[in-house]
Amino acid sequence: MAKNSRLQFDAIGYWSELKLHIVQQYAGAYSKIFSASRQQYLKHVYVDAFAGAGVHLSRKTGEWVAGSPLNALNIDPPFHEYHLIDIDGQKVSMLKKFVGDRKNVFLHTGDCNQILAEKVFPQIQYEDYRRGLCLLDPYGLHLNWSVIEKAGHLKTIDLFLNFPIMDMNRNVLWSKPEGAKPDDVKRMNAYWGDDSWKVAAYKSQPTLFDGEELEKVGNQEVVNAFRKRLLDVASFAYVPEPLPMRNSKGAVVYYLFFASHKPAGKKIVEDVFKQYRQRGIT
Fewest CB atoms within 10 A around its CB: which of 24, 88, 129, 137? Predict the structure, then answer.
């Protein structure tokens, strides 16, 4: 494949490659379970809301790396159906070349928040004997809570979710929260679902002169609050502790969440996450 295309491919590091491996590993186990004879009355669907062009460039080797859609398409036994979404028409066009003439693959160009709610999730209903594995991997705060909540309430979807803590810290969760730009606060509200993140991210501390001021808490407190939100508000039955995903300097860029209604899914992901939880800079 020529690398001088006008299309800009994402260059990814170790942790992004690891994420692709984790999702592929779980998707393989998931498809195998639903392809078993006792489960064949259920139709299982793969959904990728930020599918991209299908391939990435490895920062380490400069070689092409298959993205999550291609990994899913190569899983055997296959999913019954695939829905691949991206807002970038050029990336969808490239993805179409990889997909070829497969009739069970549906490509969608546009805002995944709208496409998931209006076109994809309505096709994964419990009473229709359909189940889904959905990857929500935004580049930052480009996802609406309503999508996450809908996925949980359907009770048919296993979910991998990028919780973009670095974007939050850079643009919203400042030591002086009043300094954040209104547009960034709006993005945060949309991702979280309301402004209750302010309660999770800040605690009131007394000052020397009998007053109070807000003090920012650490990443873990924010992550714990969002995990509780996935359980209590989105109504997922199981949300294991998420896996911190890092950059080349060891700083946490985002947390990889998994949410499900099945104990088997929780067990598989906890075992996978455990392998990588203590890794540092790579």
Answer: 129
